[in-house]
Amino acid sequence: MRVEFGWFLDRAPWAFQSPGLNAVRVGREGLTKLLQTRLGTTRPELPDSYVTRVQQYLARLQAADTPDSWFHGSFEVDPWSTAQELLRARDELVANGWDGTLPDGKVSELMRCLAELERAGLPLDPALVDDIAALPDALDSPLPLGIEVIELQHPLGTLPEIWRRILAKLESRGVRIIEPENGFRQPPRITVLEAETEWEAAEHAARWLAAGGAERAAVSAGTAVVASQPTGVLDQHLAGHGLPRLGVGSKSAWRAQDQIIPLFLEVIWGPVNVQLLGEFLSLPVYPGPVRAKAARALQKALAEEPGTGGPAWQQALQEIAGEAELGPELAAELDGLFSTGLLLEDSNVSGAELAGKCEWLAGRLAALVPVNEPLATTADQLKTLLTLVSGLPRVSRRDLRRMAASVVAETSSPLAAAEAAPWLRLNHLNELMDDVEDVLWWGFQAGTISPGRRWDDGDRQALAGIGVELPSAESLAALTVAQTLAAARRCRNLLIVQVRQQDGERVDGNPLLEALVADQPGQTGEDGTPLSIADRVKARKVAPETLLEGDTWQLAGRQARLVPVPACETTVPPSSFDLGPRPDLAPEKLSFSQLSTLIGCALAWVLEKKARLRVAEADEVPTGNRMIGTFTHKVVEELHRDLQQAHRAVPVPEEIDAKIDLLLPRMASELLLPGQQSRLKHLRVIVQESVLKFFSTLSKAGVAIQAMEQDFEKPLVLDVDGTEVTVPVTGKADVVGIDTEGRRVVVDLKWSNRDKYRVAEVREGKAVQLALYQWALDDDGAAPEAPTAYYLLKQGTFASTHAAFGNPLEAAQPPAMLWQKTVAAASFTVTEVVNGRITAGPRLDAELAAAGEPYGEELAEAEGRHYGKPPCNFCNFTTLCGLKGDFS
């Protein structure tokens, strides 16, 4: 047998030009396994051996740990990562022949620690490094090897010492070792295509491959494509030329299937993270871990109350229990998992307790595997993780995250699979072992290789004294460079593709470029002096804009004739759509939010209410100001209920504080998460002061609160093409009371960072929501104008025209006139909609402004309508209407 051996050949393809049955191409792992097979020293492959070995090494650390241990501080903070780091160091030593002996002389604490751990009697499964270390002794066996010759990819002297020993043992057994010849190959012609972006680079790289022709891409001549980074963009351009895709995908831990275990392990701990719970419930895996109907019910509850255990959550559980295909058993399981049975880190959760909590997910995955086969991998990963933790006396969330990251490895899922191609495909140029004509190196800047750990010089010298020679980081880097240069000489034409920015960020260069250029024949300037490396590199670079002369495109020895194509005109979505009469688009009912959207932008209203477009469920879980506003509103509502039962008007600070603590888990659990203590402390002070001021101000003004969240429904008569159309207006008034004069008082609670917008609404006479409340709650139309106000919870101030709330504002127009204009605006928009003219408000305003015509508020006021500001800042459809987006 003929063996081709190289440091980087474990991922290299089989022989490209001269394959044979009695020849193999292997790297360190491949040669080790080949020799083990011939010597009869193979061992069973252990599933998930890496995480098992980390767990075993962690057990050694636990047994050896004392307050005086060198690793104690790190181990106490992060046991799993400490075990990983020390195991990597141990494996690097063993891979170079170390047997656990502590060398004499002055050595580092790391070396002493590793020697002590190696003497521990606890088990540690063997790995590839142990197999390599055992080869020199195993080669003393008289068993025949069946290997005639080993051809080295690089000179023997550049290999680490243990491999020189292994090869010497093989040579003593009659195996011929052939080193590569140097100097007989010429360096290739190097061209560096430097594009601004990956898209620009992919266009020219694909064209270069297409310009090669079938005869040049054939195996006899040879073209190699090195893909050191994902080829998704390049594959699109290759397909456009009718060429096969390379199918190299990027590895990511954020694929939906790979998020099942990490997300589940986050949401079963308290306090609950509702954002992550929303993501877990809406994972795009079908069928998912949680049954679809149950997941939707819980997501709806989280959108109403961003926490668990409250009325909305209980209502969702009742819906699940009432569904015949779900039932009360599932409702109880989900409630226990995500609400009542949450694990608490302060209670010293054991591995057995955690494993019991995960039994539900394990059972669910097992049931889904027959209908979703890829989930078998996820089920196996969960089984491995539970095996690791089940015997631990205590499991912290930090350790669990580290273990999960080790077990749930990043996966690659290219947009299109690799297709059969006439090219030799490589991951790095140093894998090239066949002579080819041309090489395209895609993703050159990602083709760097880490040289490994940098060991202390004292440790290296002490280890050399016991026969263990650790290769220096410099020597391994030199080996990488040398082999890349040697591989480059196997081609005549090397096209390197690099970009200035990737995913919007600047990309660093690859130092291999200087080495490749330095290997070229020397160049001199016009004055005869040798050019610097920087100048020589610059001379090799070409920009995409310089590749075209007339209709001829030329790059790195290949050319193509380009045919002009008609320019693709940019088409911006229209500002309005004429659909013809559409009476079905008339509103069935309206709320304040629907009314404001309808008046501000008819297109947004139609898309939301008629086309029923909506954002993903996970995005509907409130956070930030929206969450805090809902929470504070609930605090006021429940305090009023308690005060009403006790016949009191103003709470004491202790009552407010107790109510905050009671409602946090079910209305704002985000504030209970680690790292939120300072934010919660600050918010607690604001809420206490603001809520107390709210009740105190109303009490001093003689306003008695009668109801909160009072439902109302009133018919609104609209003039649609001269016909009266009645639409019910429904909603809830936040706070409804009565003052000393018997007038109905309405207060709307708001939470926002600034008060100027609400104050401006009231001052300018544009507070439509307050005008709507006055109209909706006025039963017969004969009641005097009811006092209304916004109460700005964060600032603790009222915005109102009525003196009872303090500092009254003067409105530019009375509420009755504002409501009249609002009804006119609604009538106008509904008329437009039912006649099939759907308008994007801000887009139409921009077109009218460009034409010098009246638009926006000016146009609306001229026609006696209220101008509703389009809700673009909070709209989910700004790309669909053309306000945002690139339409080129």
UniProtKB/TrEMBL annotation:
Residues 590-881 form the PD-(D/E)XK endonuclease-like domain. GO terms for molecular function: helicase activity. The keyword Nucleotide-binding applies. It comes from the Bacteria. Keywords: ATP-binding, DNA damage, DNA repair, Helicase, Hydrolase, Nucleotide-binding. GO terms for biological process: DNA repair. The keyword Oxidoreductase does not apply. Pfam families: PDDEXK_1 (PF12705). This is PD-(D/E)XK nuclease family protein. The lineage of its organism: Bacteria, Bacillati, Actinomycetota, Actinomycetes, Micrococcales.
